Amino acid sequence: MEKVLLQENILKNYPVQCIWQRHFSSSGNLAYHKEYEIHYIKRGTGYYFIENRKYKFTHNNFVVIKSGEIHRFIPFNPPVHIEKGTLFFSPSFINREIKKIIETSPHIIRLGEREATLVEIIFRNISVEVATKEMNWEEIVHYETMALISLLKRCSSKKNPVPRHNPRVESIMNYIEGHFTEDISLSDIAKKFFISESYLSHLFKNETGMPLKQYIFQRRIMEAKKLLTEHPEKKVYTVAGKVGFTDFTIFNRTFKKITGMTPSNYRRISLRR
């Protein structure tokens, strides 16, 4: 299992963060957070797994991840170089009308060449302003972010890629979402959907980019982190049971392997913020 930091608290000092980066694509892990997340893909191809569906992106695409959506980056095989801008912003940074634009937009939006040029300039401007914090930088960041969302709205109204949809996979994912805190196994799920275990393993990994058992572990730890911070009165061993771990030692070991810290330390650090 890969080490993963599930980022429920991305923004600490200011409600916007913007990064322009070039990197060689590698597997991401399950994540969720209250912030909105928008990527502009200048170069590269891959997939995002968002709320039980797999979406392909390519150059000159927006990838829109809405507040609270479970998601994961899945690289192409073999991996390729990705150049992109990434913008995070808090729900408190935008008004109801802007939230509606984002909430009703597709997850993948195709940009024309003119819009793509404007979007790249905006992303680079925001990242520089947030990094340098020169005079009036907050006003400029707000203005640029609103301009970006206006372009997102314009491009959302045009014809966009239709996400690949596999009803069987979606049914399996919905079943797991409703039962991941229970004692479920690959065998149980295969029987439930009348398919072989080997086919289920192949189908699941092809869609999410990770083995089913790893997904369930990460989903349980994601839920545990939520309970640890939202219910500080609950004992850690109670939280372990609530998310599906019958062995407290295994819960502690898994939590530390995935997050890099014990459940108690995670709660202590989170509650200080």
Descriptive account of the structure:
The protein has 273 residues and is of the alpha+beta class. Helices cover 47% and strands 18% of the residues. A 5-stranded antiparallel β-sheet has the order 1-7-2-5-8, covered by helices on one side. Helix 2 runs antiparallel to helix 3 and helix 7 crosses helix 10. The longest helix has 20 residues. It starts with 15 loop residues before the first strand and ends with a helix. The relative contact order is 0.14. The N terminus is likely disordered.
Topology pattern, helix = H, strand = E: EEEEEEEHEHHHHHHHHH
Number of strands: 8
Q: What distance separates the N and C termini? A: 28 Å
Radius of gyration: 20 Å
Task: Note the total helix count.
Answer: 10
What average pLDDT do the residues reach? Answer: 88
Measured as a percent range, the helix fraction is: 40-55%
Physical arrangement of strands within the biggest beta sheet:
1-7-2-5-8
Task: Quickly list its features.
5-stranded antiparallel sheet; 8 strands; 273 residues; alpha+beta; 10 helices; 3-stranded antiparallel sheet
Summary of the model, kept short:
Helix 2 (113-132) packs antiparallel against helix 3. It is built from 10 helices and 8 strands.
Architecture blueprint of SSEs:
Elements (H helix, E strand, L loop, with lengths): L15 E9 L11 E8 L2 E5 L2 E5 L3 E5 L5 E5 L5 E9 L6 H8 L4 E3 L2 H20 L4 H20 L10 H13 L6 H7 L4 H12 L3 H19 L5 H7 L5 H12 L3 H10 L1
Antiparallel strand pairs: 1-7, 2-5, 2-7, 3-4, 3-6, 5-8
Helix pairs in contact: 2-3, 7-10
